[in-house]
Amino acid sequence: KQWISTQSTGEKFFSWIRGKLVRTYTGHSADVAQLLPFGDHIISFGEDKRMIVHDIETGEVYADVWLQRNVTAVTHPATYLNKVLLGDKDGVMELWNVRSLKLIHQFKSLGSAVTVLTQSPGIDIMGVGLKSGEILLHNIKHDETLMKFYQDWGCVTSLSFRSDGVPHMVSGSTEGHLAVWDLERQELNNTIHHAHHSTVATSHYLASQPLLFTAGADNAIKIWVFDGPGGTARLLRDRSGHRAPPTIARFYGGTAENILSAGHDRSVRMFSAIKDERSKELSQGSMESKSKKINVRVEELKLSPVTALAAEEIREREWSNVITAHAGSRDVRAWSTLQGALSDKPLSPKLETIVVTAVSITVCGNIGIVGYNSGHLTAFNLQSGINRGLFGKIHAHKGKVVGVTSDNINKYVISVGHDAQIKLWDLSARTLRHSLSLSHRATHCTLHRDSNLLAVSLDTNTVCVVDIDTRKVVREFKHSDTVLDMCYSIDGKSLLVCTADSIIRQWDLITARLVDCFKTHSLVTSISLSKENLVTTHNNELGICLWTNRTLYET
């Protein structure tokens, strides 16, 4: 019923019931390193060299013991009543009675830091993983080692034993590989290379089944089934998120059901807020086979991180409907959300030594508009990939294009440049129709197509709202720090702005007043709003946060 997790600050940990925080446990003066559920109690081991036993229900401290060592692994040996087995960074193991709070036995040093302790199917036999890569089967009753294995990938991060009659043990590594060991023959049976893209945090065979559950530091959990020839495994199912912090998240299709995101892990993902099984990473091709052929990591073959993203749902079933700009690249890449894959042909301009800085798709889904750091602005046909030409004679702006969009009737393309200019272009003729000068340089822009209100953030921390029809600034909102992202409400009556002081503000455009603001736990890097929900990404965080609009439920 309860899930226990450590807080990022490390000195506290918490109990949760169905996602609701019910209790906070305190007592350590340094980071909590290990947790062990123990009947009605939870035992914590901190870097302050203390073992604290809490009552799970009340949170009261049952015992507090100074161990004189930093615990790096802990487990409860089967049939050993009230006993826990500890391992430390010096390779020493100790058996403690947590009821009497006495040290029962100290084992001889293993010569390397103990990283994993797990119970084997045999009574008294413990699996011990060491930082050196050694794996031991140790009899704690007689303090003797029965078997030794060694994995070439260094530190052992996880161990698990099969319980369905097959004498196999699996070990994980910091390289993301898994090794399957035959305990009867005392040899390596097979390996699963790149089971995860980084450290295998845990592995666990399901009871009496040929199924292995693994979780990694790459923000993925996987289930493997051992039904291949010679006991080899294949991936049965998995759930994963971004392996590095996402930087862009946008609601897709005008509802709160799907979220498009991209991040530092060089991937583009579609998350379902309704059913997690529908979430997926958009494919960039057969990266796994290519990486094996040339012996490089998959991440090295992927596109560079996404810096700008645009999507339209209307042509989803006909051709590519998502375009992305990538760090340091002059090419725009097109994606299909229906096929969940990258288009074969990039949208490449005839210009050299330029970098894409802004992208947009027209409301009809036919044309992709692209702005560059050189000030050029061009259009591509998304069905054929043909470049339709430049806007203006040579440069659209004197400096990089910071934002580009189009109105809801495909009459104008609107570009915002670092030269403090807003320009309106005829979409079909690609000629300049109107221009508007700003008081300072622009950094971001977003358009509410139904009302033709363009929000532009300036380097003075001010957001200007421009009426495209009258070409006048109708609202100005000042902020205390740099504006990082903006978005409109569905009805266009509110503007949400996130700034570098970790505050999200909601401005009412009709009254020109601040109607709401709240501070987030970390820096917000992007925001997107649907009718019911707000989605945010945060600096140095893997998760994408979904917020509920409380005003919909208040009377």
What's the gist of this structure?
The protein is an all-beta fold and 555 residues long. The protein contains 2 helices and 50 strands.
Folded structure, characterized:
The protein has 555 residues and is mainly beta. The chain has two helices and 50 strands. The strands form 13 sheets. It has a four-stranded antiparallel sheet with strand order 4-5-6-7, with no helix packed on it. The protein has a four-stranded antiparallel sheet with strand order 8-9-10-11, with no helix packed on it. Strands 12-13-14-15 form a four-stranded antiparallel sheet, with no helix packed on it. A hairpin with a 3-residue loop joins strand 45 and strand 46. The longest helix is centred in the middle third of the chain and has 8 residues. The mean pLDDT is 92.
Keywords:
elongated; 2 helices; four-stranded antiparallel beta sheet; 555 residues; mainly beta
Q: In angstroms, what separates the terminal alpha carbons? A: 34 Å
Spans where pLDDT lies below 50 across 5 or more residues: none
Strand order of the largest sheet: 4-5-6-7
Helix content: under 10%
Number of strands: 50
Let me know the average pLDDT: 92
Tally of individual helices? 2
How would you characterize the largest beta sheet? 4 strands, antiparallel
Strand content: over 45%
Q: Structural class, judged by helices and strands? A: mainly beta
Shape: elongated
Rg computed from alpha carbons, rounded to a whole number of angstroms? 28 Å
